[in-house]
Design goal:
Helix content is 63%, strand content 0%. It has helices at 3-21, 27-45, 63-76, 82-96, 124-145, 148-163. Helix 1 (3-21) packs antiparallel against helix 2 and helix 1 runs parallel beside helix 5 (124-145). 29% of the residues are buried. Bound molecules: zinc ion.
Length: 166
């Protein structure tokens, strides 16, 4: 996808994320959209820096780079939502365009899905909207259907054990 597609994807995804994370539709939702939207949109633009530095669709389009952005906030307490933008950039390139990306770079093989359209196709914008919708369905499913209570059970058991003084 071109820059326009990635910005559109980043902005639409952020609006959707704002409503998923804060469904009230009040000022709090708007604040969440801003909070998430700027870093996600910046992240969505980042991988194509490799059109100038390195090899396009390889150097900054791979899982090790994504891993850096996921780990960064834990190490430095900074850049919290940027990884979401980097990930959505990869998804849009893999699903939305004909050419794939080198997910396991420096291994040079590019991986794509046979559903994409040419970057210059007049359907590229529609494709971007459809893929963004798909991403939001996946995120909503994870947020709303993950049994967070069950997942927190581990922590509760640990607290219980501590309370018992064992
Ligand atoms: Zn790209």
């Amino acid at each position: 996808m071109n820059k326009k597609g990635h910005v559109m994807n980043g902005v639409l995804l952020s609006i959707g994320l704002g409503y998923i994370l804060e469904p009230s539709g009040t000022e709090a939702t708007f604040v969440t959209i801003l909070e998430v939207g700027l870093p996600v949109t910046l992240g969505a633009l980042f991988p194509d820096v490799d059109t100038e530095f390195g090899k396009h669709r390889k150097t900054l389009h791979n899982l090790p780079v994504l891993g850096l952005f996921v780990a960064f906030p834990y190490v430095f307490g900074n850049l919290e939502f940027v990884w979401i933008g980097v990930l959505t950039h990869y998804v849009l390139d893999v699903m939305g365009s004909k050419r794939g990306i080198a997910l396991f770079y420096p291994y040079p093989q590019e991986f794509g899905l046979p559903v994409g359209v040419a970057v210059k196709s007049k359907h590229a914008d529609l494709m971007t909207v459809v893929i963004t919708g798909f991403e939001l369905v996946v995120v909503a499913a994870i947020v709303f259907y993950t049994p967070w209570d069950t997942l927190e059970l581990g922590g509760s058991i640990q607290q219980g054990i501590q309370a018992l003084g064992v």
